[in-house]
Specification:
This protein is of the alpha+beta class. It is built from 3 helices and 13 strands. The radius of gyration is 15 Å and the shape is globular.
Length: 161
């Protein structure tokens, strides 16, 4: 983990259970979707106790796992470090592509659940899968181009439009 925290190279990678997973540069459409989601989350949380972040930002889930979600929300300000987020965010959003879909839906979903993330969204081809992990749940709800948060009442994100 120390090497991960000290590395300031331009290479993007995640450290999962001590193993390094290289990340390809995101495509333009991927970044458009990420920006659209971040802008709406940032607007919703402005003036509130929670804060939205956009990649690239390291999130240290435990002593040997650090990931770089596309978009995240942190409500516990003590988790916001100088260089990384230290602990589970409250909301994580991953924008999946063909090469990351299975990883995002399986391995990362389990990582986020075990770490204490409250809500996890996977955006794929204009639809959104929402996992709410509170009260030991792990069931997906599928949304079209618009999603409403379970954890944050009043939070709605629109992809199309």
């Amino acid at each position: 983990m120390e090497d991960y925290l000290a590395d300031r190279s331009e290479d993007r990678y995640e450290l999962i259970a001590g193993q390094v997973f290289m990340m390809a540069p995101p495509a333009v459409e991927h970044q458009r979707t990420v920006q659209k989601i971040f802008k709406q989350l940032d607007a919703f949380f402005t003036g509130k106790s929670c804060e939205a972040f956009v990649s690239p930002i390291g999130v240290c889930l435990n002593e040997n796992t650090a990931v770089q979600p596309d978009v995240l929300v942190v409500c516990d300000r003590s988790k916001i470090g100088e260089k990384t987020i230290n602990g589970a965010p409250d909301l994580v959003v991953e924008v999946s592509g063909p090469s990351t879909k299975v990883h995002d839906l399986n391995q990362k979903r389990l990582l986020y659940k075990e770490a204490g993330v409250r809500e996890y969204w996977v955006v794929d081809d204009g639809r959104i899968l929402k996992f709410t992990f509170e009260q030991n749940k792990d069931e997906a709800e599928i949304f079209g181009g618009e999603i409403q948060s379970t954890v944050f009442p009043g939070l709605k994100v629109v992809l199309n439009g």
